[in-house]
Amino acid sequence: MRWTRILLCSAALAGCAQAGTGLTRDGVAFGPSQALQGIASDSFEHDAIVLCSGDRAQCIRNRDRRDNGCWVERTPQAASESRALGGDQAADKNGSSSHWIEFTGRKTVNDGQYGHLGGYKCKLLLERVRVFDRLPQ
Predict the structure, then answer these.
(1) Which among 62, 71, 99, 133 counts the fewest CB atoms within 10 Å?
(2) Are 75 and 125 in contact (CB under 8 A)?
(3) Are 98 and 70 in contact (CB under 8 A)?
(4) Roughly how many angstroms between the first and final C-alpha of the chain, as a whole number?
(5) Bridge-partner residues for 101, per DSSP?
């Protein structure tokens, strides 16, 4: 009987430890890793993604240029993948570029002030990048 209780308690504790799929990095709490997509924009002191749940054409057609999206942080793996997929292409004459991006990553659990001068309400941690296609300005 005693061993049964010990095993049940151990199993319950192990399940709790594995159930937490969130991540805390540099004091910022992120949710679980998930497949996401949207429009990435990069310019001087601006590296952000506006997330979109629709299909690519619909997202591009309906993008709201007033939405500055979520600040972006990349793991070394994601940075390497985005460069390999064309992320090192020259920016336009204003020094900015936009890309359609499909990636695996995490979003902050709570809204806050992230990125340059705290100008972004959320932050994304990109873990893997599958698609990174340049968009016309």
Answers:
(1) 62
(2) yes
(3) no
(4) 70
(5) 38, 132
> pLDDT for 63-82, tens place per residue?
776 677 999 999 999 989 98
What radius of gyration do the chain's Cα atoms show? 19
Q: What value, to the nearest 5°, has the Cα angle with vertex 105 and ends 68 and 15?
A: 135
pTM above 0.85, yes or no: no
Strands 23-25 and 28-30 come out as antiparallel
- Cα–Cα distance list, 23 to 11, 19, 98, 105, 106 (Å): 22, 12, 28, 11, 8
Nearest of 124, 95, 96, 127 to residue 108 by alpha carbon? 124
DSSP 61-100: HT--TT---EEEEE-HHHHHHHIIIIITSPP-TTS-EEEE
Cβ count near 36 (within 10 Å)? 19
Q: Residue 100: pLDDT above 50?
A: yes
Q: How far apart are CA 128 and CA 36, in angstroms?
A: 10
